[in-house]
Structure to design on (173 residues):
């Protein structure tokens, strides 16, 4: 598959990420949230987002396996890199690149709530794709609502390619 069209220019992404950062700054005032990026896709979004938050934050990463080389979720999820910080009593913010079926985010919310003892768990995604949502999962912070196509760039990949594009594009035949 090759790039069909650009859906979000880098400037639009930057502006939206800065707005999300300001919102988080207000919502987490007086707290020190632990921002947890879901590898690999969230690494660029998280890097920009935490720099737009004017609070002390802690940063950690996790990795889950669910997608493989295909563009369809296989539905089964395994944690391949656990968080390393002690999350007891902490305010956890999960940062994802894109929520599609919702399977990954729902699994992660359950994992953090049952396997750790955080004070709170909230979710943030750069892109929310509602059209294929199969699991109802609350998303607290959404960058963009985009339903069309398979997206790449700004951290999002197709079989590990395109992550370094500054903009977000849809793939096509
Ligand atoms: P879900 O479990 O179906 O919500 O899938 C979430 C994961 O699938 C995300 O973390 C992405 O890695 C991947 N994914 C879903 N849609 C896309 C897409 O359009 N482009 C790239 N990755 C995607
Ligand atoms: Mg991902």
């Amino acid at each position: 598959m090759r790039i069909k069209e650009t859906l979000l220019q880098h400037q639009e992404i930057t502006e939206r990420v800065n707005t999300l950062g300001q919102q988080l700054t207000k919502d987490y005032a007086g707290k020190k949230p632990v921002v947890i990026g879901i590898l690999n896709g969230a690494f660029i979004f998280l890097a920009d987002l935490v720099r737009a938050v004017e609070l002390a934050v802690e940063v950690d990463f996790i990795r889950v396996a669910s997608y493989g080389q295909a563009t369809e979720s296989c539905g089964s999820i395994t944690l391949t890199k656990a968080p390393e910080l002690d999350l007891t009593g902490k305010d956890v913010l999960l940062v994802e690149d894109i929520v599609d079926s919702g399977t990954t985010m729902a699994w992660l919310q359950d994992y953090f709530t049952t396997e750790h003892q955080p004070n709170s768990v909230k979710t943030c995604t750069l892109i929310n794709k509602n059209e294929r949502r199969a699991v109802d999962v609350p998303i607290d912070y959404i960058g963009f609502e985009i339903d069309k196509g398979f997206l790449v760039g700004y951290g999002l990949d197709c079989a590990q390619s395109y992550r370094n594009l500054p903009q977000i594009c849809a793939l096509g035949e």
About this structure: The chain has three helices and nine strands. Residues 10-27 form the longest helix (18 residues).
